Amino acid sequence: MSPFFVKAIQLLLSLSILIVLHELGHFIPAKLFKTRVEKFYLFFDVKFSLFKKKIGETVYGIGWLPLGGYVKIAGMIDESMDKEQMAGPPQPWEFRSKPAWQRLIIMLGGVTVNIILGFLIYMAIIFTWGTNHVGIDDMPKGFAIHESFKQYGFEDGDRIIALNGDELEDVIDVNHHLFMRDVKTISVLHQNGQEETISLPEDIGTFMFENGIRRPFSPIIAPVLGAIEGDSPAEKAGLQEGDKFIKFNGQEIKYWNDFMSLKAADSTNSAIKLTYERNGLENTVTITPGEDGIVGVYPKADYTVQHKDYSFGESITKGFEFGYWTLHDYVAQFKYVFTIEGASQVGGFGAIGNLFPDAWDWKAFWGTTAFISIILAFMNILPIPALDGGHVMFLLYEIIAGKKPNDKFMEYAQLVGFIILITLLLFANGNDIYRAIVGK
308: which strand partners? Predict the structure, then answer.
């Protein structure tokens, strides 16, 4: 099966699980508070349904448009814009007749389920598969440093001791911490054996983002081929595992990072002249990258990856910690969206689908599902009318002010929110289409 369909199936399954559980988060408290739920749908049933069945007072169904799902709660101004129902007198089973605190719990139910689900999945992943990490002693050659970071005092071969005075469990995560978290100092061990604590500017994450520096610290790996992708330009050119790159278009290569940097700088994707060593002899080959810029070579890792298993109790603590930082980092990076570069990187269903691997992998599937669940929780709680967060915003106003916004205002707010969401949806998926066309 092609990678596209493998990713599509994973995306559809993941979203189906998350949507059903999210809507159950609204459905269950609504039923507990004796509020009538008229519809419970996976996907949207515009004009028709793929399946529907009425059980009791609720119609359960599957729509044909896989852009989400919904529960239609009686007496609530939502995306259905059911003005006829709202024109009648309030009924005791309707949402609008319930106390504000009950309505608030109903609206917060979906987000709460998504957060809890994400954390539980992370706990299960850690309990089942454990974690991998690279400690300071596992990478004796240290890091190759991006030229822009050498101005702060970093040197090629530096080994990471601590961030903000705290030891880093996985030193490979240093780039992620710099980009997403408030890192003020990095303690390093230079190749000459001297330890140094280097201070960083407060806006180091913004500096990295604006300059396109995603990996200022790259593990020093010898430029030796560990694997070659089948039917790739590299395989067709005759490269083999164990070949050691020496030059890229005449420029010397010392580390694998040099090859990657030179390849990234060559935006034309034109023919590359690679000089390599095999069995003590130098050879030169010309390779034309594929349309996506891929050559199809992977390095032979020369650092040690440690594995750690966790007990049931330890996995709960570790999973909670992992979930917390996943949410924290996603919220932290949201500030970049409000820049020209950030807006251009916003993605829709294509970008989400690409989070999944090309081949089926249950660990990767559940890890990505947990991540999407946390994203959905955060996005849904944004104070935009038509989202759960919009309803929560108006309910909090009602609780504080002691009066409801009038129904006409709520109808207009819902319409504006719906237009905002459709615009964002078109923009995000438009970015996906653009990137697919230009190959970025």
Answer: 131
Contact 85, 96 (CB under 8 A): no
Residue 396 CA, chain-centre distance (Å), reads 30
Tell me the backbone φ, ψ of residue 76, rounded to 5 degrees.
-130, 130
Q: How far is CA 177 from CA 102, 204, 208, 305, 391, in A?
A: 40, 11, 12, 19, 34
Contact 272, 247 (CB under 8 A): no
- The answer to whether the Cα torsion of 162, 168, 171, 177 is positive or negative is negative
Helix, strand, coil percentages in the chain from 3-state DSSP, rounded to 5: 50, 20, 30
Rounded to a whole number of angstroms, the distance between the first and last alpha carbons of the chain is 24
Say if CB 187 and CB 165 are below 8 A apart. yes
Tens-digit pLDDT string for the chain (440 aa): 677 888 899 999 999 999 999 999 999 999 999 999 999 999 988 888 999 999 999 999 999 988 889 999 998 876 655 566 666 777 888 988 899 999 999 999 999 999 999 999 999 999 999 999 999 999 988 998 998 999 999 999 999 999 999 999 999 999 999 988 889 999 999 999 999 999 999 889 888 888 888 889 989 888 899 888 888 888 888 989 999 999 998 889 988 888 887 887 776 667 889 899 999 899 999 988 876 677 888 888 788 899 999 999 999 999 999 999 999 999 888 877 777 666 666 777 778 888 888 888 999 999 999 999 999 999 999 888 888 998 899 899 989 988 888 877 888 888 888 888 888 888 877 877 776 676 55
